């Protein structure tokens, strides 16, 4: 599948970051990675992304802040959050923010399916 979608993938677990980036690149997405919330914040300030995929639990600047910054600057961007710990309060926040939440560990192809569905919903 060839895609012009620009994705920002944020995770402080380098193995997860590399795996997700590789899989999405092979599916034709333009993938930019950040291994911290701080690095992601810089990228979000400099360029637009169609979809942001971020881990929630990271030191200093966490995924919750990345979601807030993304919504503020790019309100129409799709957002997928991942976490090992999605409790009731986190699920409520996910629902309120209108983002997609995925519990870790997840099947890496699950993200590809979500992105294909997102593209179908947003085709002009």
Question: Main attributes?
Answer:
124 residues; alpha/beta; 5 strands
Briefly summarize what is shown.
The chain is α/β, with parallel strands linked by helices and about 120 residues long.
Q: How is the topology of this model organized?
A:
Elements: E1 6-10, H1 14-26, E2 30-34, H2 37-46, E3 51-55, H3 63-73, E4 78-83, H4 88-97, E5 100-103, H5 108-121
Parallel strand pairs: 1-2, 1-3, 3-4, 4-5
- C-alpha Rg (nearest Å): 13 Å
Number of helices: 5
Structural class determined from secondary elements: alpha/beta
Q: Which series of helices and strands comes N to C?
A: EHEHEHEHEH
User: Stretches where pLDDT falls below 50 for ≥5 residues?
Assistant: none
Share of helix among residues? 40-55%
β-strand percent reads 15-25%
The spatial strand order of the largest sheet comes to: 2-1-3-4-5
The biggest beta sheet reads: 5 strands, parallel
Mean pLDDT across the residues is 90
What's the number of extended β-strand segments? 5
Q: Give the end-to-end Cα distance, rounded to a whole number of Å.
A: 17 Å
Shape assignment: globular
Task: Explain what this protein looks like in three dimensions.
By secondary structure, the protein is of the alpha/beta class. It has 5 helices and 5 strands, in the order βαβαβαβαβα. It has helices at 14-26, 37-46, 63-73, 88-97, 108-121, and strands at residues 6-10, 30-34, 51-55, 78-83, 100-103. It has a 5-stranded parallel β-sheet, sandwiched between helices. Helix 2 (37-46) runs parallel beside helix 3 (63-73). It is globular. The protein starts with 5 loop residues before the first strand and ends with a helix. The mean pLDDT is 90.
């Amino acid at each position: 599948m060839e895609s012009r979608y620009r994705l920002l993938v944020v995770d402080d677990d380098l193995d997860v970051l590399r795996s997700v980036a590789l899989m999405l690149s092979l599916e034709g997405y333009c993938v930019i990675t950040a291994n911290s919330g701080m690095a992601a914040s810089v990228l979000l300030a400099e360029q637009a992304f169609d979809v942001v995929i971020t881990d929630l639990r990271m030191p200093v600047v966490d995924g919750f802040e990345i979601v807030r910054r993304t919504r503020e600057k790019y309100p129409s961007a799709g957002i997928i959050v991942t976490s090992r710990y999605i409790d009731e309060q986190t699920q409520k926040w996910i629902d309120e923010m209108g983002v997609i939440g995925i519990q870790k560990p997840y099947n890496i192809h699950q993200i590809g399916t979500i992105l294909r569905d997102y593209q179908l919903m947003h085709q002009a």
